[in-house]
Amino acid sequence: AWARDQMRGLVEQTGAVLLTPGRQSEKEYFVNMAVRSLNELIGHLQAANVVSVKVEEPFQGKFRGGGLNGWIDLLATNAEGQDAVVDVKWGGLGYRRDSLQLSKYLQLAVYAQLAQQARGRWPVLGYYIIRDARLLMLDSDFFPKASIIQPDNGENHLEFWQRVEATWRWRREQIESGLIEVPVTDTEPDEDSTPGEFGLEMPETFDRFDDYKMLTGWNPES
Q1: Cα(132)–Cα(32) distance, rounded to whole angstroms?
Q2: Burial class (CB in 10 A: 0-12, 13-18, 19+), 165
Q3: At a CB cut-off of 8 Å and minimum separation 6, what does 210 contact?
Q4: Looking at the whole model, is its pTM more than 0.90?
């Protein structure tokens, strides 16, 4: 009842498009999904004997390249004093599962660094997918009812972070020498496109999250 009451105000403040004529069923679907997913998340917290939950908690830290900062979606602490960092996503269950299994969870690794520096202990890491009401955890039984994903390469997130820093050093050296790679569609990688066996795997292209597409060329047919 509380969640549904809160959702009404939330829709009015930030989702008013769902109040327009003809979208009543879409609004109800959204509200029902959100309430169901919240109920499932609370079940996970209870099963893990969580005693503290912080939402959208700001953290600041540093790494060898300078400062780091971020807002952790959900930081849960259990009765034993263990922390869990959970990044909440609307969808993308398969994509997020693959990111854990294939060791491509850079955002979560940054959050782990921030939490460790602030609290003096390493958290476990995972994703909560709202649309599917699923909790995915990286090699941890912190949440006993979650889906536990083991990375294919067997590394933990500390080893993953070492590869992050090795990759950063590689890219920094390139930039300082005047090289800037633009990995967009219709380009081909060359000998300078990989950091080697100790770095992160580089995607062939990175258009999906590119805020600067107009700076990297136009479709000749447009």
Answers
A1: 12
A2: middle
A3: 184, 216
A4: no
Q: Tokens representing 185? A: 């569609």
Nearest to 135 by CA among 150, 154, 148: 148
For residue 175, with 0-12 CB atoms within 10 Å meaning exposed, 13-18 middle and 19 or more buried, which class applies? exposed
> How deeply is 150 buried, as exposed, middle or buried, from its count of CB atoms within 10 A (0-12, 13-18, 19+)?
exposed
Q: With a cut of 90, say whether residue 207 has pLDDT above it.
A: no
**Could you write out the DSSP letters of every residue in 72-96?**
EEEEEEETTS-EEEEEEESS-HHHH
Token pair 């955002």 is at which residue?
107
* Phi and psi at residue 154, to the nearest 5°: 75, 5
Residue in the structure block whose two tokens are 């590394």: 155
Alpha helix (H) residue ranges in the chain: 2-14, 24-47, 93-101, 106-119, 157-176
Task: Express each pLDDT in 40-73 by its tens digit.
Answer: 999 999 999 999 999 999 999 999 889 999 999 9
Contacts of 74 (CB under 8 A, 6+ apart): 53, 54, 55, 85, 86, 87, 88, 128
